[in-house]
Structures are given as structure tokens and as C-alpha cells.
Amino acid sequence: MILIVISVLASNLFNIGNTEFRKWGMPAVLVELVALFILIVKYFFRMKQLIIYLEIPNDFMKKHKKKIAWDANNCFVILDGKEKNIKLSEADISTDQSSKYRVHFGDDLTGQILNTNLLEFKLKDEEGRNWRVTFDLYERTKMLELFSSPPREGQLQ
């Protein structure tokens, strides 16, 4: 970039090179500068992407041997004492032995979350089990804790 600017300036100042280069050199440099400025601004002011994985304990996976279906209306992150709805999807890095789920925040939540250090998740699966986990924002994967299970048939509530 710098060499192009110097060569264009030199050709215009000292009448070096052909006239087409001198004629279109400066507008081309200006276009390159504007494009470079736009790229730098996009890089520094882009929305930060937040990727968090929640992992199901191995002993739970061995016992149940199936993926968890999450209750979309009862999966929350707690921010400023308020429950904010989130979505979970199975992560690409899941295996048969371990199951990981990626947390999806809405765009409106990402900014709020980046201003905190500690997140608390309160989740419920479609079988009625409640899961909780406290998550430090500097971690990327955290093991979920089973908080409560629904009573089985024949059990007293």
C-alpha cells in the first residue's frame, strides 16, 4: 500500500511513467485507502461473538444413553436478577460418550453478557429435569449439574 502511494506521488511529481498511470493513480489510491479504512472499522467495531458450550455429565450420559431435548420456553440465563430466554442446540463437538450443547444468545443479550463476568444458567429439559450451572465468562465449556428430576411413576411427590 505504501509503495503504491509513493510510486503514484513520484510519477505525478516528477512526470515519470505513462500518462494513464498518472491520470488514474491517485483515484485508485483513494479507493484503496477508503477500502482499507472500512475494513479496519469493521474489524474494531464488529459485534463480538460469544460461544459457550454446556456439557452433560458422563455418568448421566452412560445411564440415559440419549440426547437431551430442551424445553425451549424454560431455558434461561440470569442477568441482573432477571431470566432471559436462550436456546440450546447440540454442538458439533459432541460424541457418543459426551454430549455438549451450544448456547445461543439473542443479539440483544450479547452486549449485556459481555459486561458481566459470571453467568448463571437455569435450564429445563422436556422430561422435566432441572439443570443449573454457574459459568465464568472466561471459560468456554462447563459441566451441567442436575438440580432436580421429576418424580418417577409410583413415587410420592
User: Which of globular, elongated, flat, extended, rod-shaped describes the shape?
Assistant: elongated
Strand content: 25-35%
Give the neighbour order of strands across the main sheet. Answer: 3-2-6-7-9
Strand count, sense and closure of the main sheet? Answer: 5 strands, antiparallel
Counting DSSP H or I runs of 4 or more residues, the number of helices is: 4
Q: Would you list the SSEs in sequence order as H and E?
A: HHEHEEEEHEEEE
Structural class: alpha+beta
Distance between the termini: 73 Å
Instruction: Bin the helical content.
Output: 25-40%
Number of strands: 9
Low-confidence stretches: none
How would you state the average pLDDT, rounded? 78
Number of domains: 2
Radius of gyration: 27 Å
